[in-house]
Amino acid sequence: MKYIMNIQWLLLFIMIMSSNAFSQGIRKDYTEMTDDERIALMSAYWELGNDQNQNGPLGGLVGEIGDFHRDNFSDIHFNQRESDVFFAWHRQASVELQRAMKNELDNEWITIPYWDWTLSNSKSDALWGNNWIGPFNSAWGLNRSTFDSGGFPTQSDIDNALTETDFYTFSRSSVEQNPIHSWGHIWTGGTMSGGDSPKDPTFFFHHNMVDKIWAEWHDDETKSCPNNDCYVKTNMPRYDGTETNALGESLPSVDPDDIVDPRSLGIFYSDRANSLTTLNRYTVSNISTSSEKFGYQYKIEAMDDFLVPSGNDAEFRSCNVIELLPGFEAANGSDFHAFIGGCDISGERVGEEIIDNELMPLRNYPNPFTGQTTIEFTLSKDTPVTLFVSDAMGRQIAVLLNNDQKTEGIHSLTFDGNEYPAGMYYYTIQAGEYYGTQKMILAK
Ligand SMILES: [Cu+2]
């Protein structure tokens, strides 16, 4: 009887968790999305704007978030220190809409991008064209009065804002009441400059940029709130469990302090300037989805405590390069997949799977070792492979494979450490465009 109770509690716990935890993946600048990502996102906007119950334009979740934002405007904006939820509310609302898009289109790859207006700040940018969010203007009566160009804060304005050390001052003075937040609304005009601004798709593109700036602020450990305690309030309007949204869901209560790190929602931001996204300090913990998916057409780098634990699965897709650096770990019993290439002009993310290893993409045993150790890797297709060993200073000390053609399947080779001093070593595999690095410890 006691066990049954425990299992019921466990199930209840899992149900609660699954409504809270869901993977989001990589948020890109809109110019970094592939064509199929863009098409999926635009379809999702049309569907969630024109709802479920044929309530016409903006009868669905997009319109509802807009109405809620307008009706509760003073609770979620320009707050005093003890009630400030500006950043957190907008982060959670964006995640909620994105999750609904994934469900609606049954497509886990959908992400809402950010709009980096330090780089794209002209009315003639692709963003406002027919392939992007231009057509929503007339279809949804958004009445944009977009300026012809310019006037946005620059990267140095953002850098300046990021020097603020107090969370509340940063949130309210450096961002919310600063052109960093306000100019995207004013510049776009029409619905974007009013209380129901979330009805314009521009809103979350812009607010994800604002959110990215918050994420950067948070990642500077000298500025993070002590004990992750940025907020005085422990809940937010709409997320107090009392609302039922247009999709018939009632949303769980959210403590803003729980989402201060975007990783808590599975969010990572790409860096448009370097065509790079870094996945770090994260444990893949998918509960509501079958797999956490991270897609980015440029370089994906996973390192520094990015862990895929046993029993969980993760998938990386890039048109370009995937690097698994020291600190990345796909544990025994996890299911990790990396796909590279195959991004044709249509942007289809089909790609060939280079590494498919339900154990480890790359491992050695024993580790630590004395004398010799076996390095093992699994290929999911025939490909040339380079594998080399470096010391802790990054100097290459042994080349075990040099662009040697290898067949699909498991391969292993031996590294002999007898002639090297004790210490930390790295071994790196390059298979096509895939790089993986692991560390091993030589003990004497
Ligand atoms: Cu707002």
3D structure, described in words:
This protein has 444 residues and is an alpha/beta fold. The chain has 2 domains: 22-259, Di-copper center containing domain from catechol oxidase (di-copper center containing domain from catechol oxidase, Orthogonal Bundle); 275-442, Sandwich (Immunoglobulin-like). 27% of the residues lie in helices and 25% in strands. It is built from 10 helices and 19 strands. The chain has a 9-stranded mixed beta sheet with strand order 1-2-3-6-9-19-18-15-16, covered by helices on one side. The radius of gyration is 24 Å and the shape is elongated. Bound molecules: copper (II) ion.
Briefly say what this structure is.
By secondary structure, the chain is an alpha/beta fold.
CATH top level assignment of the largest domain: Mainly Alpha
User: Which percent range fits the helix content?
Assistant: 25-40%
Overall 3D form: elongated
State Rg: 24 Å
Kindly state the number of beta strands: 19
Quick check: average pLDDT?
84
Associated small molecules: copper (II) ion
CATH superfamily of the largest domain: Di-copper center containing domain from catechol oxidase
The CATH topology of the largest domain, please? di-copper center containing domain from catechol oxidase
Number of helices: 10
Low-confidence stretches: 1-21, 344-350, 356-360
Q: Output the helix-strand order.
A: HEHHHHHHHHHEEEEEEEEEEEEEEEEEE
Biggest sheet strand order reads 1-2-3-6-9-19-18-15-16
Structural class: alpha/beta
Under the CATH scheme, the architecture of the largest domain is Orthogonal Bundle
Domains counted in the coordinates: how many? 2
The N- to C-terminal Cα distance equals: 54 Å
Largest sheet: 9 strands, mixed
> Proportion of β residues?
15-25%
